[in-house]
């Protein structure tokens, strides 16, 4: 860049700073000092997301805040099984390829909600569509404990 470009850039910055008003660094420092002095005593310390609540109350789904989350959509999926393969084998897959899974035939499927196991079940056909009959459901308190 040459000095004309530098000067043009400096002029643009000067114009932008003039548009912001009369507030200088001293005014900003005064506002920050006033804010930290008046509300520092009102602030609570931040907690880590994974931390255990300070009160040792048992985990419960009862309470007034549950209604807030009842209409949030979640993704539910059924997992037949899984396996690990290397990229070379992945690239060689084509129509008719068979991938061996880690489950035996007849074993129950995992029912996952947003990737979290909530139940086991078996495949059924209802009105020509696949469905799943839940055979074992993990209790809500156990699901919440697993999240921690």
UniProtKB/TrEMBL annotation:
GO molecular function: cytoskeletal motor activity
Superkingdom assignment: Bacteria
Chief location category: membrane
Keywords linked to the UniProt accession: Bacterial flagellum, Cell membrane, Cell projection, Chemotaxis, Cilium, Flagellar rotation, Flagellum, Membrane
SUPFAM superfamilies for this protein: Surface presentation of antigens (SPOA) (SSF101801)
Bilayer topology term: Peripheral membrane protein
Gene Ontology BP terms: bacterial-type flagellum-dependent cell motility; chemotaxis
Gene3D superfamilies: SpoA-like (2.30.330.10)
Domain Flagellar motor switch protein FliN-like C-terminal residues, every copy: 69-138
Signal sequence bounds: none
Renumbered residue ranges of the record's region Disordered: 38-58
CC per GO annotation: bacterial-type flagellum basal body; plasma membrane
Location relative to the cell: Cell membrane; Bacterial flagellum basal body
Role played: FliN is one of three proteins (FliG, FliN, FliM) that form the rotor-mounted switch complex (C ring), located at the base of the basal body. This complex interacts with the CheY and CheZ chemotaxis proteins, in addition to contacting components of the motor that determine the direction of flagellar rotation.
Family: Belongs to the FliN/MopA/SpaO family.
Name assigned to this protein: Flagellar motor switch protein FliN
């Amino acid at each position: 860049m040459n000095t004309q470009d530098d000067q043009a850039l400096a002029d643009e910055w000067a114009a932008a700073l003039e548009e912001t008003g009369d507030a200088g660094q001293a005014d900003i420092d005064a506002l920050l000092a006033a804010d930290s002095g008046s509300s520092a005593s009102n602030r609570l310390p931040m907690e880590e997301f994974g931390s255990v609540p300070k009160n040792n109350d048992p985990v419960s789904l009862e309470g007034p805040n549950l209604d807030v989350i009842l209409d949030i959509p979640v993704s539910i999926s059924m997992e037949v099984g899984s396996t690990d393969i290397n990229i070379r084998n992945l690239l060689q897959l084509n129509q008719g390829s068979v991938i061996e899974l880690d489950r035996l035939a007849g074993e129950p499927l995992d029912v996952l909600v947003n990737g979290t196991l909530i139940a086991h079940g078996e495949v059924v056909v209802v009105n020509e569509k696949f469905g799943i009959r839940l055979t074992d459901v993990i209790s809500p308190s156990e699901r919440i404990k697993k999240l921690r």
